[in-house]
Amino acid sequence: DWAAGLYLLLLLCVVAAMSLSWGDVVITAARKYTFSGAVGWKLIAGKDTPETTPPPVVLISVITSLCGLFSNIAGATVLILLLIHWADPGFYLDYLYIKNLIYYFGHILMNMAMYMAVAVVYELLPLYAKRPWKSNKIVAISWNAAFIAVSLAYLHHLLQDFPQPFAIQVIAVFGSYMAAFPATVVTVIGAMVLVYRSGIQWTVAPLYMFLGLMSWAIGGFWAVLDAGFNNAFHNTMFVPGHFHLYLLAGTSFIFVATLYNITEELGGCKDTFEDRLGLWAWFIGAYGVALTFLLSGVLGTPRRYAVQMPGKETWSTFGALFGWIVIFALILVIGRYLTRLQKVKPLRS
Question: How far apart are the first and last CA of the chain?
């Protein structure tokens, strides 16, 4: 029995550590820009000046960190309740309440990974396009709207929990559809306008960033499609298809772009055939994995089953082949990054 209690306690430590990190982001930004300035409220009200307007990377990071802090309150609450229940099995738990807390915590946490990656794109892509991408009212409004939407979007996972109050289920539909648009549309259109006729040199780093944004948008569209056909798709492999795409070819792509940017800026590294091979192999493999999930979901393959139902294994075979392509690409990308890293001059104060 002690293992379960220790597991919950260690998870609580992780939640506390994340809270300290995200709290530090908010406090540091608020000290420089004030809180209302850091989250873009002054910009929306027309009270900000160019000197006090935070760059997009700050605005997005602060709003995302606030999402994380609220989700951590839910995460800590559910972990404490489960610890009490572990210590005293007679302690009553409302499992629908617990499920709401868990999904609120976990769903926001997964969205945060993508949002933090997008903040990096706002900072780095303009360097390659040689054009500014500054904060403005539209950016501030869209990311504040995203804060509200992402806080409500988790509820679509509970649409089939019929004891939920009907009003909450209506909010779930609103939040789920709303989550896909403000930040995504503004960011993707902004990125396309930024690079259009900019003369950008499509080295591997900006390619990873741009393809990562597009994968985020495409994966988000599939999520909206899933929400529209919830009864048919939501408990099928369609759902892993959409989130595998915007994590495997979205968040991960942007993370790798930052690594390549470091070796370009500090090491003067140039792209090789292997760098581009790794990029496109990863792209093909990731989309192949996601599409096999999506198609098997459309055909009714259930998710979360330990053993697949008879006749549903074919798509998994294709998915495994594309998975091997992703593994090959990862080995290539990691190897090339370590090679490029040797050329990076050590930073000195």
Answer: 51
